[in-house]
Write a structure and sequence with these properties.
Helix 1 runs antiparallel to helix 2. The longest helix has 36 residues, at 79-114. The chain is α+β, with helices and mostly antiparallel strands. The protein is elongated. The protein has helices spanning 46-73, 79-114; strands at 2-12, 18-28, 33-35. A hairpin with a 4-residue loop joins strand 2 (18-28) and strand 3 (33-35).
Amino acid sequence: MERLLIDFSQVYGQNGTNRVSRSVYSTYTDGTKRNKESGETPAVSFEDMLSSSIKKVNSLQLEAESKIRDLAIGDVEDISEVVLASSRADTALRLVMEVRNKFLDAYQALSRITG
């Protein structure tokens, strides 16, 4: 599993001006941290990560629907499989919706600042 960390640091210029520098790091499960901008590791765009997450949520939803359909026709021996699949799909959908809501809040806050 990979997590992205964005580090915003305040940098002081030679003439006393302030600017913010941004560094994007990737933290892997083994604890290593690699700078994405230096080319040490292949960069994964946020769009690709978001797209793959949405596809995963969709596959979990389809799996849950399939299990529910199997339960309705009597092909399921253990009902806990159906409950677990439904719970996974629900949790994944809620997570994606919360991420969407946070981005909308951030966009609206930026709109108010610039507007």
